[in-house]
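Morning F.,

Quick status update on the modeling queue. The single chain you submitted on Monday has been processed. Sequence for confirmation:
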Amino acid sequence: MTAGEAGKLALLWRGNRQTRSEATAQNNRLNRVFDALAALGIEAEPAIYADDMADEVRQQLLNSDGVLVWVDPISEGQNRIVLDALLREVASRGVWVSAHPEVILKMGVKEVLYRTRHLGWGTDTHLYRTPAAFREEFPLRLRSAGPRVLKQNRGNGGQGVWKVELMSAPAHAAAIVRILHARRGSTPEEMQIGEFMKQCDAYFANEGCIIDQPFQARLSDGMIRCYMGADKVIGFGHQLIKALIPPPPEGPDSQAAQPGPRIMHAAFAPEFQALRRKMESEWTPKMMRLLGIDVESLPIVWDADFLYGPRDASGQDTYVLCEINVSSVFPFPEEAPLEIARLAMDRLKTKSGQATMKG
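Structure tokens below.
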């Protein structure tokens, strides 16, 4: 089968006009995905996006059968407002979009941690929709429950994620808290809790919210990234992270403060089989039912990030969900490009079958 026989896809990521004019299937980080698609007879082309090129990208997508999107929710001061409107439009006109913006709003935001807190991967999770609720409830919770982690609803790279510890009592507006931002290079600061909460007002803009979870004591054991192809596990990544851990004496920019490499593992890696079984047979199906997402609407590739929770009575690990990434999953295990291509083929066949039935 030659490229193009099975359909045509656009792979979309952010760039400028020069990047758009020079982009090929091989001169970018998704080159292995392009190769896997071509091997299955799917024609794929780069679709470099910026807000000021939205009209020409729209036309490109309308000439495709589908689009796979790799764009972070926040990047260098840019957001996805214009892009998401474009993707909704082309999807309404018959182009298959993964991940669709509506699916991102259901599962690719921090609010999913609150909505799914009872599914088995959750913890003592709370949600604040207004600054007033945040100011009223958070200090009392901090005093009674110990260190907390706050997360803005949409973000990446640690933006808007804070560890907060109460340093003085009682927990009123003048109480002192120690805060640590999850962004790389951050150092602990102490300030009045009222001042800190005022700084968080920006997170409520555009119908935003703040999610509140307990700090996980086993953070230093690392984070497990569970890579999913629709509803099946396609690999794992384990990384010793440094976010929300105070930097060493050498400083926040020292080598000792940098996270360890993410070690990739295949889906069948023995050490992660308990997590795999839970993801495939329990947690993902329950999430889909709760959020109203069917298999065909799940992103082609997404991941769920887990921290180690307290060991259970038998000494086995438990896992606490800390984030779901849908907008721009990369890097991924070496098995992922083939799985992405296979799933894309299935979606294109489904789209073609639906078009035939309508015809």
